[in-house]
Amino acid sequence: xxPSNGRSGYNRKAIDWIKDAWHLAKPYWTSEQKxxxxxxxxxxxxLNLAYVYITVVANSWYNSFxxxxxxxxxxxxxxxxxxxxxxxxxxxVVQLISFYIRKHLEIxxxxxxxxxxxxxxxxNQAYYKSRFTEKVDNPDQRISEDIGSFIGSSLDxxxxxxxxxxxxxxxxxxxxxxxxxxxxxxxGHKLYIPGYMVWLAVLYAGLGTYITFKIGKPLIKLNFRxxxxxxxxxxxxxxxxxxxxxxxxxxxxxxxKTGLTxxxxxxVDNFMRVVKRTLKINGFNFAYxxxxxxxxxxxxxxxxxxxxxxxxxxxxxxxxxxxxxxxxSYFLDAYGSLAGWRAVMDRLYGFEESVxxxxxxxxxxKLPDQNGLLLVSNLSINLPNGKNLVQGINFKLSxxxxxLIRGRSGSGKTTxxxxxxxLWPYSTGEIRVADVASNELFVGQRxxxxxxxxxxxxxxxxxxxxxxxxxxKVVLRECGIAYLASRLDEISDxxxxxxxxxxxxxxxxxxxxxxxxxxxxxxxxxxxxxEMEQHLYQLLQDKLPASVVISVGHRxxxxxxxxQELDFNQLQSA
Length: 574
Ligand SMILES: Nc1ncnc2c1ncn2[C@@H]1O[C@H](COP(=O)(O)OP(=O)(O)OP(=O)(O)O)[C@@H](O)[C@H]1O
Hints:
By secondary structure, the chain is an alpha/beta fold. It contains 17 helices and eleven strands.
């Protein structure tokens, strides 16, 4: 079973971690970009192998250099220094090219994956319907940060593993060759252990990894929790920014501070646990690291002093031992990254699951019909928990008809509009329209005014063929906001700057520009005086006489602008 909602993956088996990673990575590596991606990864792998080869050459250079020193061989000094220069040069070149190609691979992969996530999230209104499925916190963070972290960590860990394995095999060979046999007598029998330095390195690294694993195991869980607490805290801060004015009006700072302090307390508390645990691991690792320099020296110095090996052999053995030890300690070093990698995978999983489930939720499908512009028969609206809200809704609207929906608060008026717009997955009945692809526009009590250039915000969601300045000015004047004409090219957070009444007038300008066939107005004039309300409804009648208008509102003055009425107080629930 896949981890659900990003909270349970860290106790899965190692093989499942790889399967989970492949599940997330597969769409890119089998996409139309796969050839480019494979070429890049092959190049990076080849360069990593070249890097290991360079370290092998450098390792044998040590032998030659220290042997030359031991023999006071002046002639060899200059060629050996030049050779070292070449080794260093190739090392730098290989690493720089590898870095460059790898970054290209990373950004190409991230671009593709982000595009896919955005498409899935924004199509079929999954971004909206995910409110009905499991709650996924911070989808923005999942798209903006987690994809990049997943790609970076996957490449780091897999290339690190590959380099460690290749390095291990290369240096085990060298170490085996250098270490010779370890001869000893046991119970009168002469025995020997071939390549004893290799066995010592395996034993040494195995023991080190085992102890680190034992001390560090809780760290995976702690790091995972750290990410969750940090995300909770960030989400809390984000909400304050979003609702700053409402909080300020309520003087709700104390309440908010208490909530945020609680969340931050979790961050600090867990952080200290991470620090204490890391202290233990680091304490061991430092001691272990220091001994790993001394250990091969202590083992080999007796043989060197007995003239059983040259100074070059001794230095090369020490360096090879270090390399073998490094490679074997791969998991020891990758410990912290593994925890982060798992957490990121779980968050992406949770996001993918939620998007799939949301995409599978469908509103009522609209059927074609030439009998009117909009026909609703026997519509019944339920809540997500299955409880019926209202049933038996019937009406027929032809071009130019205007329907007023009234009823007490919470009776389901807005939810009817959601059902008509295909956003509510819990309705039954039949909706028929003259043209399935007809153009609809929904205007809520607080119209959505994006933080973009004002002219685009007014015309939203129109993106092509925007009216010219003159046409825009006329519409703004007609809607009573002529003074905004001078700010058409300004980019601001209009939703926070404009008053609610200004935003509602802007929404009417938007209707005139988009000229939809069906217009939904959900208490869209609630912040305006009756005079302005009359003026705007008159404007709709004059400019868009053929459009169907469906209004939700409590004011009795609205009645005169509608020729049909649906009273929710007269309807029953099951
Ligand atoms: N996502 C949701 N999950 C559960 N219940 C919901 C959801 N959205 C709306 N409801 C419930 O559906 C009921 C009808 O809500 P709706 O917004 O349609 O009422 P309304 O008639 O438009 O109210 P008002 O006149 O106050 O705007 C309410 O009880 C509301 O709590």
